[in-house]
Design a protein that fits this description.
The complex is a heterodimer of chains A (375) and B (159).
Chain A: H1 14-37, H2 44-71, H3 76-109, H4 123-134, H5 137-186, H6 188-203, H7 207-225, E1 232-234, H8 235-253, E2 257-262, E3 271-273, H9 277-289, E4 296-305, E5 308-315, H10 328-343, E6 348-354, E7 357-365
Parallel strand pairs in A: 2-4
Antiparallel strand pairs in A: 1-3, 4-5, 5-7, 6-7
Helix pairs in contact in A: 1-2, 1-5, 2-3, 2-5, 3-5, 5-10, 6-7, 7-8, 8-9, 9-10
Chain B: E1 5-10, H1 14-25, E2 30-36, H2 39-49, E3 53-56, H3 65-70, E4 79-84, H4 90-95, E5 100-103, H5 108-117, H6 131-136, H7 141-145
Parallel strand pairs in B: 1-2, 1-3, 3-4, 4-5
């Protein structure tokens, strides 16, 4: 079942279907043959031939059922109902075939038609009794129903596995983002400059400020080192980490950096990909604040938009014109990839110049349940 | 040659600059004549004041420390000591004949050593300016250049 082919990711592999049909109708053949062998009314050669032909026809009907089923899209309930109808049709067709095959084989093998007298208390009941007596309708029905149930069960399993795989991918991407965040924190530019700033505060006797700076650095590091690798997190927690980061930068850059955070309380429970804001804010720091001769304002805002969550990181710096340090575009690309992985086309990143500065906006479905619990 | 080295400090982060100023209070034989908070200001002040030593951060708005150092022209020029959190600019620093390359967080003992090594900015000592860098980069540029300078703090003229 794990050999799902590309292009039809949630469908059952052909080999598995072949194996399923073969298995079901081999058993049916065995049952039919055993029934024929123990019947005193007909020669065993006729019984065996009939069992083989009918099992082959059954296998063909099952194959047709699968063809229809695999091309059918729509709600699960409707597909199941149509499958049941298909099974009923297949059984009826099989019974018809059985009657025809019996006639043909008897003529070929020169076996006389049995005289079956069915006494019933109504025409419908009489017909049913005759079918049961003359054909193997019970075996056909059992085999097709087993086949149909197996089809639905296996497809559900394939779907579940596929969803699990997507969730795993999302988790892996979150881990990648976490590692990127970790690398950022441990890179010289941020970490050593922050430690240098703390050293400055200590040496010049501003120990209370130094303590606060250490607290912020701890908050920021704990958010990363303590992260459990979940693909998404409440916006609130993401903001807490970003604010600790920006508080540190505000101390480092003093009046060159102003931060505005505008996120309504109602949106703070919304789920966002873990560490998704870090690269956006980091870009603003690197390209706008660190390169600008005048003070820069970084604005972080969130709003609800037609069932979506819109998060914007806007700066009014002027450092975006030049190429920037290597790797600057990597952060944005990673964000874009993760949004696509988690939300498909519903997750988008827009990044472009905005006045003198830069605007990065991510849009994603507004949900408050963790990824994985809403499948 | 004057006994006191005239020093310019440039860093765009206020706390980093304050730390440098504070460190120089304890360094005898040197005097901070100016501070700058961006590359343009640093370049202008160096041109105006011609300090003996310029301590430059590398990543600064306006102009990077490397750009400032490259703009210092002529004989008797200002010696440059870089102070940065980045390790990977060391080769670039070599290109602009930096006297030394210090890493943040700043270590005062290392800064003192750099200042002791920094030669008077006039005279032939300039050729050996990259000495500390040469050591740091495990190269023998001075040896190949044939000026016969020694290595490390014990070389002639360092005291």
């Amino acid at each position: 079942m794990d050999r799902t082919t590309r292009g039809t990711p949630w469908r059952i592999a052909r080999q598995d279907i072949a194996r399923l049909i073969g298995g079901v109708w081999l058993v049916a053949f065995a049952v039919l043959a055993a029934g024929a062998a123990t019947s005193p009314l007909q020669p065993s050669g006729y019984g065996l031939a009939r069992a083989a032909v009918l099992a082959a026809i059954g296998a063909g009907l099952s194959f047709l059922l699968w063809l229809g089923w695999s091309r059918l899209s729509g709600p699960g309930g409707l597909r199941a109902a149509l499958l049941l109808m298909g099974i009923a049709l297949a059984i009826a067709a099989h019974v018809q075939a059985d009657l025809g095959v019996a006639r043909l084989l008897r003529a070929l093998l020169d076996v006389p038609m049995p005289r079956v007298v069915v006494a019933g208390d109504g025409p419908a009941r009489a017909l049913l009794m005759r079918l049961v007596a003359e054909t193997s309708v019970v075996v056909f029905a059992a085999a097709q129903v087993v086949f149909g149930l197996a089809l639905m069960t296996i497809e559900a399993a394939v779907e579940r596995r596929e969803r699990d795989r997507q969730l795993d991918d999302a988790r892996a991407a979150a881990t990648g983002a976490r590692l990127a965040a970790l690398r950022h924190q441990l890179n010289p530019h941020f970490m050593f400059n922050t430690l240098n700033a703390i050293g400055s505060l200590v040496e010049t006797g501003r120990t209370r400020e130094a303590g606060e700076m250490i607290d912020r650095l701890s908050t920021f590091l704990r958010a990363t080192l303590g992260a459990d690798g979940a693909p998404d997190t409440p916006l609130d927690e993401e903001l807490a980490m970003i604010e600790a980061y920006l508080d540190i930068e505000a101390v480092r850059f003093r009046d060159r950096l102003s931060v505005v955070v505008d996120v309504p309380e109602a949106l703070r429970r919304a789920r966002v990909p873990t560490f998704v804001l870090q690269p956006l804010v980091e870009n603003a720091m690197r390209h706008a604040v660190a390169r600008s001769l005048r003070p820069v304002t970084v604005t972080l805002s969130a709003s609800a938009l037609a069932g979506d969550l819109l998060i914007e990181v806007v700066d009014d710096g002027a450092g975006h014109g030049d190429a920037g340090p290597p790797g600057a575009g990597v952060g944005l690309r990673n964000v874009r990839d993760r949004l696509a992985l988690l939300y498909g086309p519903a997750g988008r990143l827009e990044a472009a110049r905005h006045g003198q500065g830069f605007r990065a906006a991510i849009r994603l479905p507004f949900v408050v349940d963790p990824i994985g619990s809403r499948t | 040659m004057s006994d006191v080295l005239r020093v310019l400090l440039a860093d765009d982060e206020p706390l980093a600059l304050e730390r440098l100023v504070f460190a120089f209070r304890d360094l005898p034989g040197s005097e901070v004549v100016a501070t700058a908070t961006n590359g343009l200001e640093a370049a202008a002040l160096i041109a105006e004041l011609a300090p003996d030593v310029a301590i430059l951060d590398i990543q600064m708005p306006g102009r990077t420390g490397l750009g400032v150092a490259a703009g210092i022209a002529g004989a008797g020029r200002t010696q440059v000591i870089f102070v940065t959190a980045h390790e990977h600019h060391a080769v670039d620093a070599f290109d602009v004949d930096a006297a030394d390359y210090l890493l943040k967080p700043l270590r005062v003992d290392r800064l003192r050593l750099a200042m002791e090594r920094a030669p008077p900015s006039r005279g032939d000592g300039a050729q050996c300016a990259g000495d500390a860098l040469v050591l740091a980069l495990a190269s023998d540029r001075c040896g190949r250049s044939g000026t016969g300078c020694g290595r490390g703090p014990g070389r002639p003229g360092a005291a």
